[in-house]
Amino acid sequence: MKNLSKILKSTAMVMLLVFAASCSDDDNDDPVIIVEEDNIVEATQKTSSLSSLVSALAKADESANNDLITALSSEGPFTVLAPTNDAFSSLLARLDGFDTLDDFNNEQLQDLLATILKYHVVSGAAVGSGDLTEGQIITTLQGETLVVNKASGVTFTDAAGEMATVTTADVETENGIVHLIDKVLIPQEALDALSGVLLTSITDLAISVPSLSILVDALIAADGDLPTVLASDGPFTVFAPTNDAFAAFLEANDFAALSDIPTEVLTQVLLNHVVAGTNLSSDLATGYVSSLSTAGPNDANLSMFINIEDGVVINGVSTVTAADNKAINGVVHIVDAVIGLPNIVDHAVANPNLTSLVGALTADGNTTFTTLLSNSETDFTVFAPLNSAFDDFTNPSDNDINTILANHVISGAAANAASLSNTYFNTAATNVDGDNLSIYVNVDDGVKLNGTSSVAAADIVATNGIIHAVDMVIDLPSVVTFATADPNFSSLVGALTAEGQPDYVSILSTATGTDPAPFTVFAPTNGAFANLAAVPSGDVLTAVLNHHVIAGANIVSGDLSSGLVSPATLEGDTLTFTIDGDGNVTITDGSGNAEIGIIAVDVQANNGVIHAIDTVMIPDTTN
């Protein structure tokens, strides 16, 4: 005959039978209904909260080796500890592969069920709760013992060290006495047979595995009572580092012992091994999930990158060596390395879709970016081009690749997708004057950058910022880039590209260092054009548009002062600036129109700067 535990494992894999539920949700406090001369079985059958016990007795008796119903209907006397329906529901939840009592569907399993039931019966005595004493040892019909505890109510402790509490005591019947209890008690014989099938909490599972003893010590040492958390309902998926993994982690970080790790750091490291939900190995897919660690910016949950291309690898550093250790509140996957708290560089290196980016960042031994993006004192938002984006990028303007890469980094802010709006940020890239380039974010339809590059995967959270993977490399912007990307300038773009106008797109795309770049552009918004009685055309429109552009100068807001007269515009007239006591800047145009407001300053392109204005400026038409 096969070993019982093997049969149980095999049965659990194939028996997912659908029957009417054996465990009802009736209240466990229903009293046992006694009719004169009812025996224990008859009384139990009349009590709705014990219907699962009745079903269990019948199921066990399907084996020719058992006749429990007849035995408990006999003269006795007996003392019966009667598990309620909820108690049986809890037991079935702990049995891997058992959905109902009907899954005890062969003789060996039915005999096992009989063993468990007989552990709840004392033969030859009807023992009332008042007759029990603290620490009393009771021998059951099954042959093993239970321990009585009366410190807080009446409880019985089984072979697993778990306690069942009496919820209704001293129900007298014709052939004995019944005490209703809130848990099914398990004898050692059943514990041995159910090895690998009877699920415990994640915490108890870890305690039972010798190679996870340091993990258990770490959980105890951390903040937040993690052993209790991982014994709660969950469910959780835990990637559990072995003792060897912890030893390597301690050595790599110059810690002599767990006690040397700051408690806050230890807590976040441990939480970074926990994911909400039950994720068996068959459920895992290559991609990002959020761990329970809140070590991200503004207490955001850190991202965890799971790669299943060759086994299961976490964040590129930790491999699952023993998967799918099921617990009653989730699953444990044992891993060979501690999963540290990833910064932006760690995430970039771990993701095979970002290898081209990593290669570009570190080309020729360059450490500028790896040093910058490993900085734990500053938060970053990084728009990370995918490998396919680099494959498609030809660098048409022959811009410096390091400046292009810096143009994908916002320093000083960790912006998740939900916080983004139609706005400008400054990037880490600079023009020849040292001014930080701008990047325009538009969220009207997804998240688009400078009108060309879209976010393909958002909110990869690291300890020092957030990564958004993008589908195109973001080249260095010209003033045309922002004019066409920002919908607030659509009327201006329409005027610049109107029939009969010069090729402003080519002119304003001229690279810095090539005449007439750089440019300072005072860009009227759509509202400014709407306020015109009529939009001019032909040569008049050309003169008006030229009056908004100063060539050969990158004039930022810091260069302006009250009374300053600008260099000549492309039209030939100058502009005069006024700054009031509150720092508001207004412009007087060539025709003397004053109080022209600058409503947004310093949209910095690589070949110039744009300032948005609320009025279309008119040149002097008399000269």
Structure characterization notes:
Residues 37-185, 199-339, 341-474, 476-617 form the FAS1 domain. Pfam families: Fasciclin. A 7-stranded mixed β-sheet has the order 2-1-7-6-5-4-3. The protein has a 7-stranded mixed β-sheet with strand order 9-8-14-13-12-11-10. A 7-stranded mixed β-sheet has the order 16-15-21-20-19-18-17. A hairpin with a 2-residue loop joins strand 26 and strand 27. Mean pLDDT is 93; it is low at 1-28. It is elongated, with a radius of gyration of 37 Å. The longest helix has 12 residues, at 107-118. The N and C termini lie far apart (111 Å). The relative contact order is 0.06. The chain contains 22 helices and 27 strands. The protein has 4 domains: 40-194, Roll (FAS1 domain); 202-342, FAS1 domain (Roll), CATH 2.30.180; 348-476, FAS1 domain (Roll), CATH 2.30.180; 481-613, Roll (FAS1 domain). The protein is α+β, with helices and mostly antiparallel strands and 623 residues long.
Map the helices and strands.
Layout: H1 4-14, H2 40-45, H3 51-60, H4 68-72, E1 78-83, H5 85-94, H6 107-118, E2 121-123, E3 137-139, E4 145-149, E5 155-157, E6 163-173, E7 176-181, H7 188-193, H8 202-208, H9 213-221, H10 226-229, E8 236-241, H11 243-252, H12 263-271, E9 274-276, E10 287-290, E11 303-307, E12 313-314, E13 318-327, E14 330-335, H13 344-350, H14 355-361, H15 368-372, E15 380-385, H16 387-392, H17 401-406, E16 409-411, E17 423-430, E18 436-442, E19 448-449, E20 453-462, E21 465-470, H18 479-485, H19 490-496, H20 504-507, E22 519-524, H21 526-530, H22 538-546, E23 549-551, E24 576-579, E25 585-588, E26 596-605, E27 608-613
Parallel strand pairs: 1-7, 8-14, 15-21, 22-27
Antiparallel strand pairs: 1-2, 3-4, 4-5, 5-6, 6-7, 8-9, 10-11, 11-12, 12-13, 13-14, 15-16, 17-18, 18-19, 19-20, 20-21, 22-23, 24-25, 25-26, 26-27
Helix pairs in contact: 3-6
